[in-house]
Amino acid sequence: MHGLQRQIVEVLPRLRRLARVLARDAADADDLVQATVERALVHQGQWRPGTRLDSWMFRIMKNAWIDESRARNRRGRVFAPEAQGDVIGLDGAAAMQARLQAGEVARAMARLPDEQRLAVALVLVEGLSYKEAAEVLEVPAGTLTSRLVRGRMALLAELEGDAA
Amino acid sequence: MTGDERLIAFVDGELAPEEAARFEAEMAADPGLAARVARHRALADRLSAIYAPVLEEPIPPQLLSAASAANDAAPRAARRPPPWAALAASLLVGVVAGRLAWPSSAPLAEEGGRLTATGHLARALSTGLAAQPGVVKVGLTFRTADGRYCRTFASTPDRLAGLACRDDGHWTARTVTAWAPRPQSVYRQAGSDTPPEVLASVDSLMAGEPLDAAAERAARDKGWK
């Protein structure tokens, strides 16, 4: 077992979480994680030990997802997320409200343009700093912040019915 | 920086300390601004909370397998895990930081909801002795409180280690974990390579002391009955 592979295994939960924000459903999300891991192993020579593996793999996932999104758009498939009850594994009637709200947020996220969804996912879900997120997305800091602002305004408008 | 950019940078903790202090002073003087900050904070909390449970989910075995693909070769194309993989995953204990590679001849098979050793693993468990070399090493042999024999194993070709106990003529896996032989450990003490989760399983099942070499051989020769 090489050190890199052990570290990839440690990053898997976060890769799955990011993928769950990006992909249409849980099964697609794990396919995206698998594609990301496979690309990472093919290109493992490009990773510099001592730098952050999570950021590097998020960037690979971003590229894999964009490639897949383009292919999907070419095929004319409409991005239509499922009811998203499976975003989180909640049980019981008491969790119904949380489930509805989770579905609501997930649907609002799914309606964001890809570039805004990525920015919001990296900063608000994965907790990356602006600098780290801009590096993952390979965009200047100003581009990241403007995507973050537009994405969050759209989410608030959708979820509150009112732009902040 | 626009006003909105400044606001979300404040919410995200991205303003320099003196900038943040100035922003807080403005908030104190402007309830409308404070309300907008509160809404953005609520959105941020909600987003992180709804996706957080994903971190607690078990990792699907095919992802562990993909992450542990051959060291230098290009990874295999995606393929379905064998039917016993899910069960094996359910037996995995703790954080799996090892390699799970599914060889063409599976060492384990599901049988009535149990994971049973097959092929070379079953042979090694039935006939191997602790001192013998081989690609499947047997470690400790002991008896449970109800008299079953159990043996720890570590399989180099399967990259698995675990604990299996004798049940109705089969070896049923009680614990399986990803494992890789440590290179250049000529002076390694026997048993020191056993993963902690396997040792924990041994501790929970063993009644008395492990079998010594003579008792191990005798039990084997009697067919583990």
Mean pLDDT of chain A: 82
Write the H/E string of chain A, N to C. Answer: HHHHHHH
The total of beta strands of chain B comes to 6
Mean pLDDT of chain B: 79
CATH topology of the largest domain in chain A: Rna Polymerase Sigma Factor, Chain: A
Biggest chain-to-chain interface with counts = A-B, 50 and 45 residues
> Radius of gyration of chain A, rounded?
16 Å
The CATH architecture of the largest domain in chain A: Orthogonal Bundle
Please tell me what the overall shape of chain A is: globular
Helix content of chain A: over 70%
Major sheet summary line of chain A: none
State the helix count of chain A. Answer: 7
Shape of chain B: rod-shaped
CATH superfamily (homologous) name of the largest domain in chain A: RNA polymerase sigma factor, region 2, helix turn helix motif
Question: Distance between termini of chain A?
Answer: 50 Å
Q: Give the helices and strands of chain B as they follow along the chain.
A: HHHHHEEHEEEEHH
Strand content of chain B: 15-25%
Uncertain runs of chain B with pLDDT below 50, 5 residues or more? 70-80, 93-104, 184-192
Quaternary state of this entry equals heterodimer
Number of domains of chain A: 3
Helix fraction bin of chain B: 25-40%
Structural description of this entry:
The complex is a heterodimer of chains A (164) and B (225). Chain A has 3 domains: 1-80, RNA polymerase sigma factor, region 2, helix turn helix motif (Rna Polymerase Sigma Factor, Chain: A, Orthogonal Bundle), CATH 1.10.1740; 81-111, no CATH class; 112-164, Winged helix-like DNA-binding domain superfamily/Winged helix DNA-binding domain (Arc Repressor Mutant, subunit A), CATH 1.10.10. In chain A, 70% of the residues lie in helices and 0% in strands. Chain A has 164 residues and is an all-alpha fold. Chain A is globular and about 50 Å long. Chain A is built from 7 helices and no strands. Chain B has 8 helices and 6 strands, in the order αααααββαββββαα. With 225 residues, chain B is an alpha+beta fold. At the A-B interface, helix 1, helix 2, helix 4, helix 5 and helix 7 of A face helix 1, helix 3 and helix 4 of B.
